[in-house]
Structures are given as structure tokens and as C-alpha cells.
Amino acid sequence: MDIVQITDLHLSKNKKNELHNINTYNSAKTVIEYVAKHEKSIDYLIITGDISEDSTMQSYSHLLDLLKPIKSNVYLMPGNHDSYEQIKLCCSRSTVKSDVFFSNDKWVIFMFNTKKEDSPNGFLKQDEMKIFKKLLSDNQNKNFMIFLHHHPVLIGSEYMDTMIIENAQLLIDLIKSHNNIKGVSWGHIHDVFETEINNAKLFSSPSTCFQSKPKSKAFNMDSNSYPGYRIINLDEKGMIETSVVRVKI
To answer: Of the candidates 53, 51, 19, 56, which has an alpha carbon nearest to the alpha carbon of residue 32?
Structure first.
């Protein structure tokens, strides 16, 4: 299974809107067109939140226009800036999906909605944890790949670590006790971070727009890092190969 993860597009109603002097619509367009041209064999494109900056219907309509060159299955997840209701509406009007999980004979892909209302922080919801635990119990012969918007582990950036998943230990405990959880990937931090817990590789994907300097006390834009995406290959033996691709804008 070949997956491309993109994240943190920060689209707005106005296509000319800029964040940190970057036109977020144009940068997302450049990255998505690059994926369409260079990653033609992927099975899934997973967008891990902060699709929108302003939660407007128009911003999600812009996303659907940008996704037209993509031929693979597309899944959307909300971030702290998103409207979950608008994402569901967007999916109901297109072939794009927002299901919490999908699977094949070897892998289960689970996509948590970590958006916490009226907060930039993340939170694992009880109903989704219940579904996830049942899947773990029912699919002990399959491997699990998890996607989130918010980070579940401290990344060493004081500013971003205030917005971690507040109850992330619930997931960490499962990773430590289940050897078939093989990967966890997230967005939100606008930076690349990688670590391991038990049998699982944990990593983030760069944003399609501005990047954040790692290990910063306050937010600092990393003007030396281009936008990008992450390629994730899940093989039949339960191994993960992953890399980050940067795209000049």
C-alpha cells in the first residue's frame, strides 16, 4: 500500500490570502500538482488536517478543485482550524472520503479526529478510541497505521508542545502493548519530527505552506525549508518505508 500524506494547507475563502508571506492556495496547488505528476502509483492521498484556515465552505470547495489531478482515493481529516461539519459536507458532494478507518487483508489505516472544540490542542475522543480498540482486538493478524492531526509526543518545541494531544498517553499505552501498531503520522507542527516507540515508527509531515523551525521556544518560521509531503509505503510483511519530499514554490 502506497500512501502520500499532505497536511496543513490553510486554505481560505480568498485565494489570495497569505500566511507568513506565502499564498497558501498557490503553495497547496504546487504541491498537489507535483504529487499528481510524480506519485502516479499511490493508492491513497491522506490529508491530515488544517485544510482550511477560516472554516468556510469556499475553502473546502477550493480543495476539491485542487484535487482534480489526483487519481487515487482521498481521505480528509480535520485539524484545529477546520470545520468537521464542512468536511463532511465536502465529502458528501464528491468522491473524497472522511471515514475514520479503512483496511485491506494486511493493514488497517485509522484516522483519528483530534480536533478539540474551541482549542488549538488535540484530544482523543472516547467513541473513536472504542472503535480503535475493537479493531485491534478483531484484527490481531493485521498491522496498523495511524494518522492524526496533532502530535502525540513532545517534539521539543515549547510553543508547539502546548498544543499536543492532551490525553495522548491513551494511545501511547496501546502502542507499547500492541506490537502490530507499526506507524503513527501527524501534521500540525509544520516540521519534520521522527522517533520510535516499541514496534512503531512515529513521524510528522511538512506543511504545504510555511514551515516552523524545530525546537523553538516561540513560533519561528523556517524560511530555509520548502513545503512538502510524506510518502509512506506499507508492505505485506508489516514494514514501513517512508520519506519526505520537498517542493520548491
So the answer is: 51
Residue range 83-108, pLDDT digits in tens: 999 999 999 989 999 999 999 999 99
Distance (Å, rounded) from C-alpha 210 to C-alpha 131? 34
In the chain, the DSSP E strands lie at 2-6, 18-19, 22-23, 44-48, 73-77, 101-103, 107-111, 143-147, 181-186, 194-197, 200-204, 228-234, 240-246
| CATH number of the domain within which 222 lies | 3.60.21.10
pLDDT of residue 217: 85
The average pLDDT across 28-42 equals 96
- Cα–Cα distance, 97 to 14 (Å, whole number): 24
Residue 32, H or E segment: helix 24-38
Domain extent for 219: 2-246
Question: How many domains, the chain?
Answer: 1
128-174 confidence digits (pLDDT tens): 999 999 999 999 999 999 999 999 999 999 999 999 999 999 999 99
Sheet holding 194-197, edge to edge: 101-103, 107-111, 143-147, 181-186, 200-204, 194-197
Residues with Cβ < 8 Å from 87, sequence gap 6 or more? Answer: 51, 60, 76, 78, 98
Read off the C-alpha cell for 64: 476539491
Residue 188 zone, left/alpha/beta (φ > 0; ψ -120 to 50; rest): left
**Is residue 220 scored above 90 in pLDDT?**
no
